[in-house]
Amino acid sequence: MIPKVLAIYLPQYHRIPENDEWWGEGFTEWANVRRGKPFYQGHYQPREPLNDDYYDLSDLSVLERHTKLAKRAGIEGFCFYHYYFKGKKLLEKPVEEYREHSKEQFPYCLIWANQSWTRTWYRGNIGRKVLINQDYGNKEDWEKHFNYLLHFFKDDRYIKIDGKPVYIIYLPQDIICRKQMFAFWRKLAVQNGFKGLYIIAMDTWEDNDLKVNLYDAFMNFEPAHTFKNDNSYRKKIYNWKDKKIKNIDKNTGKIIKRLLIKDMYTYSFFCKKTDRLTKETPKMKTFLGVFSGWDNTARKDEDGLIIRNCNPKGFGHMLERALKKSCERHNEFVFINAWNEWSEGAYLEPDKKYGYAYLNEIRRTVKKMKQVDIN
User: Fold this and answer.
1) Counting beta carbons within 10 angstroms of the beta carbon of residue 126, is it exposed (0 to 12), middle (13 to 18) or buried (19 or more)?
2) What is the rounded CA–CA span in Å between residue 75 and residue 105?
3) Of 147, 234, 237, nearest to 188 (Cα)?
4) What is the C-alpha separation between 170 and 113, in angstroms, rounded?
5) pLDDT digits over 320-369, tens only?
6) Is residue 225 a contact partner of residue 203, using CB atoms and an 8 Å limit?
7) 0.70 cut: is pTM over it?
8) Nearest Cα to 39, choosing from 222, 260, 228?
9) Which domains does the chain have, with CATH numbers?
């Protein structure tokens, strides 16, 4: 069995009143993308979509176009970020419109991005302004949340494993009541005709949850999983630069900024590190992840991390290795970060530098794997 390739999907490409209030009139993720700037010669910023396709996801036809493009490339589903704050929803329109009105048969599931929203990067400097706080509430609130999710779970296109809807959680370890919440949700899933709820915990920048019995599987979210577990000299240089950049005047000279910019990692080095980390047999089922690239300076300026020399061919090799290992482990999926994280430099969509090369690499790799499987 060849694992299915799923791509993580960011919905923040349409206006919402909250973003207008917090970040300025007309804000979408494209505002972050456009503010990207090169810190040195050869630094690929700003990122620009092919044909200046700064799309608006309030138009359902845009998402439908993406599903068709992804399907042609060999991707078999999107994982939409889902923002839910004790009954308050944000950026829900694209996936709700898809569920209710689209005739496209492209599979999908949800990732609960359960962190609070702040004016600075999540878990940033003390004293940051909280824009909307995450509150997990009580049993009544959990039931309301589940009933909202149930509309998606009942969709035939919603991704399931062994009759269980797949629900991915970004930071489950932040949910203090997770043991009781998950048990309650699983009970409700059975009561609504499913065989249970398949909960996947993402292994991100933060420490992994040690309460492994609460989950059906983990997912290595790359490059966060590898970066967190790296102990090379490059990580030590990163940590040193990270401390220095926080103590300098952000208006300082270009030479100082160039010295302190955190770009010690290359894509090839990072992929080799990922390979070594995934060779060990996990204690429980772990889905593997790959990433197309990483450069989040468009969001974080000097505080960002740049992984240099990201390229379609290298990505194709990384994907192929992940698919082979996933076959050996009998995993159903491999997760790609991401379809459209433009301001993090993690996207598959065509841009002005590489065109459709990343999507072509997926198609080539999936086709090659299927031919090997048939033979």
Assistant:
1) exposed
2) 13
3) 147
4) 5
5) 999 999 999 999 999 999 999 999 999 999 999 999 999 999 999 999 99
6) yes
7) yes
8) 260
9) 4-374 (3.20.20.80)
